[in-house]
Design a protein that fits this description.
Layout lengths: L1 H26 L2 E11 L5 H10 L6 H11 L8 E9 L1 H9 L5 E5 L6 H7 L6 H8 L2 H5 L16 E5 L4 H15 L2 H9 L4 H14 L6 H13 L7 H8 L9 H5 L22 H8 L8 E4 L5 E4 L2 H13 L3
Antiparallel strand pairs: 1-2, 3-4, 5-6
Helix pairs in contact: 2-3, 10-11, 10-14, 11-14
Length: about 325
């Protein structure tokens, strides 16, 4: 009996010793005053990861954690990615977060009407600009989606996305283009054919409507103006297309000389649609491009409050230009 008690006491002593030296330290909480970001690259050995965590003072007991990884068979279970740590944490909290792959997420919002230069800045934390521009102009990449344009402008659908930092540029752009094709449905395809247009032409027109329509309800009216002008073989005379042709060096000041310069996006000098979309249109602009209001308007002029006056003839148009643009200024 005494021997059994002795063995039991010895076992308890060993257990307590192991607990004090192996378990307790890695569960002991401490406070991190500043937010720390750690990026674990693919293929990095666990020992090197633990060394980096120790170097950044996120863990204090590297050897114990290494022992735990070995006996649990999880030495190769550290998932690559960017991790964020702050507040009260323990060594085990840090290790568990990485083992569970709780990587930092980036919420990225692409506003309606954003062009490729603006989108490149928005996604730059995940997708470097050089890779971004290379991909959106890659014919091999574009052809994957059946898009017949030299660039993916207009097809990076405006929405809110969540990405990890380790995401590839291909995945980022693929997610946005696939989001576009969730909106571009068979009904839209059928309607485009009824209008004698293809998908690319609809999105080009929708992108111009997106830039011109500051008030959502006016989009079908603006669409009607452009449809009517196209039918009559008139110049579209849309300032946003001229501005797009000046990017990325446009300083925000549209001058008369810009309207006179001849480039593929100057709809004051060239009839028809420009060669590509000029931004990423939202669903309302796309719908309006497909379903213009049943009106005969050919002109519109800004009232300087986000709304427009629509007219059917040049005389009326010039009157409102004088009233709102020249006198107004």
């Amino acid at each position: 009996m005494k021997r059994l008690i002795f063995i039991l006491m010895a076992f308890i002593l060993v257990f307590l010793t192991l607990f004090l030296f192996l378990v307790y330290p890695v569960y002991q909480k401490r406070y991190i005053s500043e937010r720390i970001l750690v990026e674990i690259k693919r293929g990095i050995p666990s020992l090197r990861v633990l060394y980096e965590l120790e170097k950044q003072k996120l863990i204090k007991h590297r050897s114990i954690l290494s022992f735990f990884l070995k006996i649990s068979g999880k030495s190769k279970g550290l998932r690559a990615g960017e991790y964020e740590f702050e507040g009260k944490i323990s060594d085990m909290d840090v290790l568990r977060k990485i083992l569970n792959g709780q990587v930092k997420k980036y919420t990225i919002t692409i506003p309606e009407g954003s062009n490729i230069y603006q989108i490149a800045k928005i996604v730059s934390k995940i997708c470097p600009p050089e890779s971004f521009f290379s991909l959106i102009r890659s014919q091999e990449f574009i052809r994957k989606y059946g898009i017949n344009l030299p660039v993916l402008e207009g097809f990076l659908f405006p929405d809110t996305y969540i990405f990890e930092k380790m995401e590839t540029c291909e995945n980022v752009l693929d997610t946005m283009v696939k989001r576009f094709f969730k909106e571009w449905n068979s009904e839209f395809e059928k309607r485009a054919r009824e209008l004698g247009m293809n998908m690319e032409e609809v999105i080009i027109l929708a992108s111009i409507i997106e830039k011109e329509a500051k008030v959502k309800e006016e989009a079908p009216l603006i669409s009607a103006v452009f449809h009517n002008r196209l039918k009559k073989n008139m110049f579209l005379q849309a300032d946003p297309t001229v501005i797009y042709g000046l990017l990325p060096d446009f300083d925000g000041n549209l001058k008369k000389e810009h309207l006179k310069s001849d480039n593929p996006y100057n709809t004051y000098k060239r009839k028809g649609l420009p060669p590509t979309p000029i931004c990423s249109p939202g669903k309302n602009a796309i719908y309006s491009a497909l379903y213009p209001a049943p009106v005969s308007y050919l002109y519109f002029v800004s009232k300087n409050d986000g709304t427009h006056v629509f007219t059917t003839n040049l005389k009326e148009h010039n009157y409102y230009v004088e009233l709102y643009q020249k006198r107004g200024k």
